[in-house]
Amino acid sequence: QVQLVESGGGSVQAGGSLRLSCVASGTFPYWMGWFRQAPGKERDGVAAISSDGITTYADSAKGRFTISKDNAKNTLYLQMNSLKPEDTAMYYCAARLRIGRYAPKLEADRFDYWGQGTQVTVSS
Fold first, then answer.
1. Most CB atoms closer than 10 Å: which of 1, 18, 54, 113?
2. Alpha helices of the chain — where are they, by DSSP H?
3. What is the four-CA torsion angle of 104, 95, 83, 86, rounded to 10 degrees?
4. CA 39 – CA 58 distance, rounded (Å)
5. Within 10 A of 59 (CB to CB), how many other CB atoms are there?
6. Are 35 and 44 spatial neighbours (Cβ–Cβ below 8 Å)?
7. Backbone torsions φ then ψ of 109, nearest 5 degrees
């Protein structure tokens, strides 16, 4: 079992930055990741990281977002820079407990546990 508690969402102007945090308690996840969902759209992967630090990014996140983790604190981070209005969405922290592939995949059905979501709103 793992419990995920998120923080760091908010409202920011275009070009600004936010850092999302997700604290995991319980079993140490094999993968952790961030997904986002805008109203009427599918839940899409943003970035993910494996237990040994292998990362995967969505094309929209590359060069702007950085996923990282602190194993000692069992905490996942998403540093978001150069935010755009199209980044506006509910952001969810996710964890996979089962062994997976070497590089994590940004597919929601491959993750087992989810946080409550934190809203990110980017204005022009």
1. 18
2. none
3. 90
4. 19
5. 6
6. yes
7. -75, -5
Q: What is the pLDDT of residue 114?
A: 97
Determine which helix (DSSP H) or strand (DSSP E) holds 16, and give its type and residue range: none
One-letter amino acid identity for 95?
A: A
**Per-residue model confidence (pLDDT) at position 99:** 85
- How many angstroms separate the CA atoms of 1 and 53, rounded? 21
Burial (Cβ within 10 Å: 0-12, 13-18, ≥19) of residue 104: buried
Confidence of residue 102 (pLDDT cuts 50, 70, 90): confident
Beta strands per DSSP E along the chain: 2-7, 10-13, 18-26, 31-37, 44-50, 55-57, 65-70, 75-80, 89-96, 113-114, 118-123
Residues near 71 by beta carbon (within 8 Å), at least 6 away in sequence: 28
